[in-house]
């Protein structure tokens, strides 16, 4: 079989052209009618009904400028999320971005504004909260602008018959080595912590076992981060690659060895990546990346993840920390309203942005220092004595908080280092990259894509799931597992074009 890329020289491909491989096949008329039927109630529900229900809740919130700005942000994010859900194209990264903004920086802070209560106290003046909400709005507009600029630029194929280079695909032998690494690293992780049973107790027990194992110290958490990272990330990547091979290759489904390896990887992931022993945001990464990998071309699955994600985040997520502590330390949520947990748990992104603005006014911007600390996360503090701490931790210490495991959303990280211009430019760049990646992902999972070994078909779902963690922050806590995933993908990636590289 002749590779599809050998006949295509490096030439621009218009986004909506009749021969564009990104364009999905025509959907049945019944689905098109269903989409139109859902459009009006979905938009009204996200933009009008839910904000109106929240606004009608009893509370002591002040209806000032901050309140109305928060309402505008909620409606704006709801409209953009509805656009993502109803889109004819699967925009994984953009869709997850707007889902996070709508939930964590729209609905939840709006409920806090109405009820008059926040998960974290605000130490500065009310004007800093208004500034924070306004900057979040500006950042969202910058993200949209970046995505719009990306849509105006045609995609170009990287494949030429003369050079022999092709799209990023997983090298067969190196992928097998990654699977071996996954079993070895996860096995070491399990044995180091005392066996599989500890992974079905609580995160508190996991942390205690890591401390006893001796890989962490009071001065640095680099050792524990590497242990957890290599114990969980390669296993997830191996499962994703094996899953993609099974759903795209008939030959793989008929191979007993491939099926057995997939079953073994699934069992390993049930141990090291289960929702009991891992943070909720990481389990969301596992779940979202696995669903998008198993159903790469399913518009129904894409829409379901975004739509049900909103319901799950508002109704289930505040209660999903049941296994954070053991039975003695667990405190169940006692609330009379479904919106009350949004004001008392988890969603502190907006108020922490306001507190960070107050902190920067007293200390000044860090001009890249915080970002450097995140990029060099692997350097121990014993080597770099002045290594910056998490942004959330630094602000929490300045606030005098006993518990400093506080969020620092991406807006905050960019603001601390570079101010408003850096925040706007950074989010515009992120929007541009997200839109380009979404379009390349659509090409990668199409019939003209590189087949079961496509690296982008795995990387895009993984990044989409990890977007929750990156947006929530702090970055110093977020980059560890992402860097390990990037290293694993880099080691197995090949750009050599091969004839008949896809299996049938």
Mind explaining what this structure looks like?
The protein has 504 residues and is mostly helical. Helix content is 63%, strand content 3%. It is built from 18 helices and four strands. The protein has a two-stranded antiparallel ribbon. A two-stranded antiparallel sheet has the order 3-4. Helix 2 runs antiparallel to helix 11, helix 7 packs across helix 18 and helix 10 runs antiparallel to helix 17. The longest helix is centred in the last third of the chain and has 35 residues.
Global Rg:
23 Å
Structural classification? mainly alpha
Please trace the helix and strand order, writing H or E for each element. Answer: EHHHHEEHHHHHHHHHHHHHHE
Biggest sheet statistics: 2 strands, antiparallel
Ranges with pLDDT <50 over ≥5 residues? Answer: 1-34, 499-504
**Kindly, what is the distance between the CA atoms of the first and last residues, rounded to a whole number of angstroms?**
11 Å
How many helices? The count is 18
Tell me the strand percentage band. Answer: under 5%
Strand order of the largest sheet: 1-2
Shape: globular
Helix content: 55-70%
Strand tally, please?
Answer: 4
Mean pLDDT across residues = 82
